[in-house]
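Hey, can you fold this?
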Amino acid sequence: MLLHITFVTPLGDLRTFSVYANEFEQQLEVLNSFVAYGFPVQSAQLTTLNGEVTMLPVEAFDGTSIIEHLSKLEKTYKLILKSS
């Protein structure tokens, strides 16, 4: 997946940053890093190898790492599936 982020620099310039990663969680961490370092994100979208585009709700990202939360969620649903 390719993550495209449009953000504002400290000088007020509008810039675009793109990064490729196989893991969705990595993409979300990159986006949260921009927010954490004080770069106002104007838009963010994920593009798959098939060309499918998903717009991400930038207001949902507060700069906090989500890896730990996603890991807990994954453990919980695996536990639920295992007990079924």
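Oh, and this one too while you're at it.
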Amino acid sequence: MAITFTGPDAFKFFGFTPQATAVLQATPSLLVILLLVLLGMTALGLVAWYIHFVTNKVYYKPKPKKDAKGAPPAKKG
């Protein structure tokens, strides 16, 4: 028996109340809008996390180069 998305049992697999199932059967675009909003919010959160991750890196100072003798270079001034 195949699962079909038509008829009175179209949205029963969600496990919603009978009133919620009736609303989804009347206007299924609400479910599509809900899923798109959740997907968009997740994507926005991932972008914010990525920006935080990239810009929160520690910036290291370059190490001073040593002379041929192995001593660090003298400071100027």
